[in-house]
Amino acid sequence: MKVWHTSSTDRKPCAMCNRKTGTYKTYEQANMNIKIPLCDTDERDCYRKVDVKKIADQALRSIKKSIQEV
């Protein structure tokens, strides 16, 4: 699983605290990318606190299951 950081002008709610952010953690596995918005500021540290690997694993399993059902 590849992990990297991206920033964007497209601001979405943080997956942890629901505040608008332009910081994303991106995971790639099995030719699929998951981009998760997470705060990374002095006041908010959701980026380092969240277990994104667990979230990404659950999302990939759900996507694969949906694909197999079709």
List strands and helices in order, with pairings.
Blueprint: E1 2-13, E2 20-29, E3 32-37, H1 46-49, H2 52-69
Antiparallel strand pairs: 1-2, 2-3
Structure description:
The protein has one domain. A hairpin with a 6-residue loop joins strand 1 and strand 2 (20-29). The model has no long low-confidence stretch (mean pLDDT 83). It has a three-stranded antiparallel sheet, covered by helices on one side. With 70 residues, the protein is an alpha+beta fold. It is built from two helices and three strands; from the N terminus they run E-E-E-H-H.
Describe the oligomeric state of these chains in a short phrase: single chain
How many alpha or pi helices?
A: 2
Helix fraction by DSSP (H/I, runs of at least 4):
25-40%
Rounded to an integer in angstroms, the radius of gyration calculated over CA atoms is 13 Å
Shape: elongated
* Strand/helix succession: EEEHH
Number of domains: 1
Low-confidence stretches: none
The mean pLDDT is 83
Descriptive terms for the model:
3 strands, 70 residues, alpha+beta, elongated, 2 helices, three-stranded antiparallel beta sheet
Question: What is the structure about, briefly put?
Answer:
With 70 residues, the chain is an alpha+beta fold.
